[in-house]
Write a structure and sequence with these properties.
about 190 residues, alpha+beta, about 10% strand
Amino acid sequence: LVCENLNMQGVIVSHKEIKEEVYTPLVDGKAIISIFIEQPCIIFVDHSGGRYGKTVPYTLHKLNGLERYEKICYEFGSQNPMILLNLFEKIEQYQKLEKDTEKICREVAKIDSLTSGYRGNVWMKLLERYYETMDSNGLKEVLDSIHFSDLSREDRAKVIEICIIYDRENKALTGLKEYGLNGIRTNRLIRLV
């Protein structure tokens, strides 16, 4: 990254999927930063700690294209969160379903620094895949792993209904007690009686 504004002392890079921000000092207006998704948030910091977004012009120069190395690194067992998130972004964005899709989703969901909402999106992608392919074993495994607090209201209702359908009544009741009946179809609720 090259920034010609001499008032800037550093750059903060964050990704919507990850909780943490990464600060890198600018040395002679340059910094080497890691970007692993298509739309990172780049913020500049001046000498007094003020933060600036789009008002500071900068140039990005790729040192190497992740596209060339991501699959090779993954195939050789890389558990690097940056590579996993990049691969998942491609799965999500391009609906690219490959033999490793399920494994990648599971590994991404286990990344500690994920935001709660993004973790919920990952679990829902996997849940929908298993639901569409009628893979009841995979579906039950995801239902056992998913946390209602990671889900949006709409997704939470879907998961509670799927829990009811796939004999996960205790999990469904836990979700209903904690979040209520909003969005749950009556015919699903009757199955709990």
